[in-house]
Amino acid sequence: TAIVGMDLAFYEHMPKLFPHTDARSWYVGNEPLIRETAFRSSSLQAGYLIIAARALGLDCGPMTGFDAAKIDAAFWAGTAVKTNLVCTLGRGNPAKVKPRNPRLSFDEACRLA
Description:
19% strand, alpha+beta
């Protein structure tokens, strides 16, 4: 099981990772923006993890709805990292793996303007 975390102090790395402007200053003291950006970025990274794992033929079980505070205490104590989601990775028993759930069609899920 992979724990996908979000570093709420990510902006401290901005001078190294985004050196052409003072991007760190955009975030300092702006907790709502920090949380929104960390959540969005870590969710995108989780999606990349899932795509890569599935490309390798692994089954993936991304999950929310768990006690994130307990995971944070066990794995991220003393850091600025908080748990976003967990994802099981492996090869499921073909006799027990459920078929993919139905999906909305493009027209049901999207609107072109």
